[in-house]
Design brief:
Elements (H helix, E strand, L loop, with lengths): L3 E2 L5 E2 L1 H7 L12 H13 L4 H21 L8 H13 L4 H17 L9 H4 L10 H12 L6 H21 L8 H11 L5 H17 L9 H14 L11 H10 L13 H16 L3 H5 L26
Antiparallel strand pairs: 1-2
Helix pairs in contact: 1-2, 3-5, 4-5, 4-8, 8-10, 9-11
């Protein structure tokens, strides 16, 4: 009999383990209490590697979350639901190996619950198509990337290419052209990916789509009023309009720097190297007014010694009248 150990070290038998192990399908509305207990018992009773157990739990949680957002039944799932889930995962950049692991995990969970396997047959086994990287549209993207190396940060270029590939993959799934894309296509894209994306992420996707259209010499579909309304509706529906972060003023920063000051006389234990690094980053950010991406891009080679005598002193004014 397989046993599971509590944090304190005491062993549990299978019946006790089934009651304490969390599974991703525990709160699926279509499952009865006995179905959930059967899944728990199967998950607790099987002898498997820790990595396999983590993959089963993680893949199941991802599938349940997606089904909740897509308003589909997660257990027992239909073949159409699994196909749509794998298509969405492929459009989100998941590799073929990851898609195969998703199928295996879903097949295991259904078998553990005594349900029919929704992953069998060629309808699910066929890999989800991806955009051809050799076509004219992707060639335009690569030409633009070559020219933009000096004008954009590397992180911006990587994000743009990833966003465009994701959009192109989704369009291929739907049988729609992606370059040029119609405003209705972009609006539908926002509606389908919106439940799992924040407004800032959707805005970045739209910026990337607009950028590749400009690079290829096409009009921007993201300027159309339909796309604008879809973007605003997504932000309002999610209740997460982007807000400006509070400023890190001197009043807020001073106590943080005091706690990270290695020269504090009443310090009980020395600071760790990571604390000194954080203090240095805060001080450099305060003095240079650098953005976060600029701050983390600094290297030791960027620093130069400066003669203190050359540092300008602050101006002072004598307000006393003679």
């Amino acid at each position: 009999m397989t046993s599971v150990r509590r944090k304190g070290g005491a062993a549990l038998d299978e019946a006790d383990a089934a009651a304490v192990i969390a599974i991703p399908f525990a709160f699926v509305p279509s499952l009865s209490r006995s179905d959930v207990e059967a899944l728990r018992a199967a998950f607790a009773a099987r002898t498997m590697a820790p990595s396999t157990r983590r993959a089963l739990r993680g893949d199941g949680k991802l599938f349940v979350t997606w089904c909740s957002q897509a308003k589909r039944q997660a257990m027992p799932a239909s073949r159409e639901t699994v196909v749509a889930f794998l298509a969405a995962a492929a459009a989100d950049g998941r590799s073929a190996a990851t898609l195969r692991r998703y199928r295996s995990s879903l097949a295991w969970w259904h078998a553990a619950g005594g349900f029919a396997n929704p992953c069998g047959g060629s309808a699910v086994a066929v890999p989800v198509p991806e955009p051809d990287v050799t076509d004219t549209a992707m060639a335009a993207l690569r030409d633009f990337m070559d020219l933009a190396q000096r004008g954009y940060a590397p992180a911006t270029l990587r994000a743009t290419e990833a966003d465009v590939r994701r959009f192109a993959g989704w369009c291929v799934q739907q049988g729609l052209p992606w370059l040029p894309a119609e405003p209705a296509t972009v609006g539908r894209y926002i509606r389908e990916i919106g439940p799992s994306r924040k407004p800032a992420t959707v805005a970045r996707y739209l910026a990337s789509i607009a950028l590749i259209h400009r690079a290829a010499g096409h009009s921007e579909p993201c300027r159309h009023w339909r796309v604008t309304l879809e973007r605003r509706g997504h932000a309002r529906d999610g209740g997460s309009e982007q807000r400006q972060a509070a400023a890190l003023t001197d009043a807020v920063l001073a106590p943080i720097l005091d706690r990270l000051d290695p020269d504090q006389p009443d310090r009980r234990k020395p600071l760790k190297p990571i604390d000194l690094r954080d203090r240095a980053l805060l001080l450099v950010g305060r003095d240079t007014l650098a953005r976060a991406d600029e701050l983390v891009a600094l290297r030791w080679a960027d620093l130069r010694p400066v003669d203190p005598a050359l540092i300008p002193r602050p101006l002072s004014f004598d307000l006393h009248c003679p």
